[in-house]
Amino acid sequence: MSFPWAKQYKPTTGFGQWMDERLPVGRMVYNSLGAGYPAPRNLNYMWNFGSIAGFFLVVQIVTGIILAMHYAANAAIAFDSVEHIMRDVNSGWMIRYAHANGASFFFIAIYLHIGRGLYYGSYKAPREMIWLLGVVIYLLAMATAFMGYVLPWGQMSFWGAKVITGLFEAIPIVGKPIQELLLGGFAPDNAALNRFFSLHYLLPFIIAGVVIMHIWALHIPGSSNPTGVNVKGEQDTIPFHPFYTVKDGWFLGLALIFFTAMMFFMPNALGHADNYIPANPLSTPAHIVPEWYFWPWYAILRAFTFDFLFIPAKLLGVLAMFSAILVWFFLPWLDKSPVRSGDYRPKFKKFFWFGLIPCVAVLGYCGGAPAEEPFVMMSQIAGAYYFAHFLIILPLLSRIEKPEPLPNSITEAVTGKPLKQTS
To answer: Which listed residue (247, 314, 347, 349) is catalytic?
Structure first.
């Protein structure tokens, strides 16, 4: 997208002009992330989490490449190779802790980015493709994170791989062959470790490619904004650089303070102690849990404790777990409200803050708790509300809710003064 008032890229040196005629990388950056991209003037700090997620994706790729130089994808020595990285490789402990905690910070940024999109209606037309690509990025990130969790080959790595790949066994007819194909055998071992290592190394680059498509799709309709009102004039926008590059830079500095504090002072706070025990197929941990960012979906998986007609409980749990994420693909068509922003939808706002957010928090808590009462019942109640929110409440609100009056323009929302038409 290019507004008529967007600044044009003009190389000031002979080399710049020569380069621009042959490989216009500078023009692309200028028009995508520089002064050539007019952005809405009222973006708040919730719009910073996309760039934060992009930064931590780069952190994961760089640290992952370094770790791969020293890691051995062999069941006999994988655990020892991680200890070798921690103890013998120069600054290996720092690289490994940056990679492990970087995954958590990446998912924190992703969840806040998704939450912002849900609240401000960023999935609505004409930005459906941006949202759909974002969900694809999240699914790829989940697969990458799961396979990375297996690589240290500790107790939680081994049994996590066994439990998660065992979910495919619940699929009728084709489930068992799929599970054996994933593992390269009947249980996690060398073949599985090699497969997961290869895919864990490959997928971040695929994610980076989809991120580029995500940004490309964003630049066609332009960024959304907290009012949900379309840009109507030059007064509604400011150049992305320097205004939002500075804002992103300041927020990134703040995020790095928390990241480095976690990495240096409590690097194992978000991990599990059992993963410092070498994998033992003959000793099952008392409580098998995935990483914290999978807990809400793990709670939905475990919420099904009885068969329904001819469908086993395990298959119901698997279907519900995947459906809990796949339902996001249909949000642009489930929520037909003409108003995008939750700020102007009073009923939607209440269901979001007092329904969906507490529901996800409860699911997250139950996913990390033992599979016993009252956590199973809490998961069932919260899971039922989760699906009801997207499949029943949102479509109904689209029909019965009376939105508050929208501002005539972004400028009016910011300054309280109506937009002046320019020729």
So the answer is: 247
pLDDT of 417: 72
Secondary structure in 3-state letters for the chain: CCCCCCCCCCCCCHHHHHHHHHCCHHHHHHHHHCCCCEEECCCCHHHHHHHHHHHHHHHHHHHHHHHHCCCCCCCCCHHHHHHHHHHCCCCHHHHHHHHHHHHHHHHHHHHHHHHHHHHCCCCCCCCHHHHHHHHHHHHHHHHHHHHHHHCCCEHHHHHHHHHHHHHHHHCCCCHHHHHHHHHCCCCCCHHHHHHHHHHHHHHHHHHHHHHHHHHHHHCCCCCCCCCCCCCCCHHHEEEHHHHHHHHHHHHHHHHHHHHHHHHHHCCCCCCCHHHHCECCCCCCCCCCCCCHHHHHHHHHHHCCCCCECCECHHHHHHHHHHHHHHHHHHHHHHCCCCCCCHHHCHHHHHHHHHHHHHHHHHHHHHHCCCCCCCHHHHHHHHHHHHHHHHHHHHHHHHHHCCCCCCCCCHHHHHHCCCCCCCC
Over residues 328-385, the pLDDT tens digits come to: 999 999 999 999 999 999 999 999 999 999 999 999 999 999 999 999 999 999 999 9
- Greatest pairwise CA separation for the chain in angstroms: 77
| 245-to-4, 37, 325 alpha-carbon distances in Å | 22, 11, 32
The CA distance from 111 to 42, in Å, is 22
Q: Is the pLDDT of residue 418 over 80?
A: no
Contact partners, residue 164, CB within 8 Å, separation at least 6: 146, 290
223: annotated active-site residue: yes
Examine the pLDDT at 278 and tell me if it is beyond 50.
yes
272: annotated active-site residue: no
Q: How far is the C-alpha of 22 from the C-alpha of 419, rounded, in Å?
A: 41
Active site residue 247: yes
What is d(CA 72, CA 418) in angstroms, rounded to the nearest whole number? Answer: 64
Among residues 219, 232, 314, 349, the one annotated as catalytic is 219
Catalytic residue (one of 81, 122, 223, 337)? 223
pTM listed for this prediction: 0.95
Q: For residue 423, what pLDDT is reported? A: 43
Candidates 104, 200, 248, 274; catalytic one? 248
Assign 1 a pLDDT band (cuts: 50, 70, 90). low
**What confidence tier does 309 reach under pLDDT thresholds 50, 70, 90?**
confident
248 is an active site residue: yes
